[in-house]
Predict the structure of YmaF family protein.
Amino acid sequence: MEIPITGFVHCSDDSDGQHSHKLYITSWNGRPVHVHSFSGVTSFDVGHAHKYAGVTEPAPTGVPHVHVYHTQTTFNDGHIHLIRGTTGNAIPLPNGGHFHYFEGVTSINGAIPHAHSYQGKTGNED
């Protein structure tokens, strides 16, 4: 099965000789796509917590869907943690749009190896 996708590629040539590309998908199977911002604070473990923020990967608008997300925490107590997962289903908002719940456990890191739990809800669709 083939799914038609439209979008564009942004090419970056940095002055330090690095070259990169970013793909921006604008529609999936004829439907526009959207993203959500998310942020929060991890659980307090081993004497500290971390903040995190990011933007989900795009998903189609107007159909049941979830979003993949990934980011890294702030640098606290000499280390960071990676956060990645998949949101829950869309929860409609009374005035239009929707949000998603998310939760999980960070990667393990630190002088005393540990992980943090996190949970929250995304912002409305962008």
